[in-house]
Amino acid sequence: MSFEGEVVLVTGGAGGLGAATVRHLHAAGAGVVIADLADDKASALAAELGERAIYVRTDVLSEDAVEEALAAADTLGTLRYSVIAHGGFGVRDKVVGRDGSPAPLKGFADTIALYLTGTYNVLRLAAAKIATLEPKADGERGAIVMTSSIAGYEGQMGQSAYSAAKGGVISLTLTGARDLAAVKIRVNSIAPGTMRTPLMELIGEEGLSKFAATVPFPKRLGTPDEYANLAEHLLANTYINGEVVRIDGAQRFQPK
Question: Is 162 an active-site residue?
Fold first, then answer.
């Protein structure tokens, strides 16, 4: 499949996984909307790519902001695709701490909001826009890729909020695909393991080596380019629908 003339909205488009996806799809011929809140990084990426790449400041929890990003896509062509790859903060709270105190509710609620509610907000609004288009020759109108995590399957101690949010994305994948089948839009998700993003690299080589040791093969962290390659494939392969694809080198998180 060619992405020439197509437009893709990438949330978290200035982050590690998102920026790699933006570059990958742009190189494949797509116009890209970089939806993020990191003004400097996103603006620099758009300037680097030049033609058919724009940055739109986007809070994924704001209906108006997401609608503005979707409207901006019209300046590049017809938006049929989206990769939802935004990240942000994380909390590490056990449900009950060693001192017997319960975890703060705010951390849980904020994490669910960002990773699950934000994903759903982009999914519903992007799908509503894509649903107005005429189907392509292969019968589909478009496709959306969401981002979960292997923590959604086997969360570690202290990851209850993040695991619940990413587990929600896993559950949303098949139901979303079934809901959107009527309007000929596919929905899939990627569940990354430990990826060597710029944020992850801040822990240093010693820390990275410890994480790599938990990966069966290849014994290293995944790369953002490998995520981007999978995202492109899930957008392009018209018979993959309702699937969550792990990309983790057979890694399985242990309790801690």
Answer: yes
Element (H, E) at 8: strand 6-11
- Confidence at residue 203, expressed as pLDDT on a 0 to 100 scale: 85
CA distance 74 to 32: 11
In order of 47, 81, 82, 110, the CA distances from 126 in angstroms are 25, 8, 7, 23
Residues 21 and 230: beta-carbon distance below 8 Å: no
Which member of 153, 162, 227, 239 is catalytic? 162
Domains of the chain: 6-247 (3.40.50.720)
pLDDT for 89 beyond 90 = no
Q: How far apart are CA 53 and CA 66, in angstroms?
A: 17
pTM for this entry: 0.95
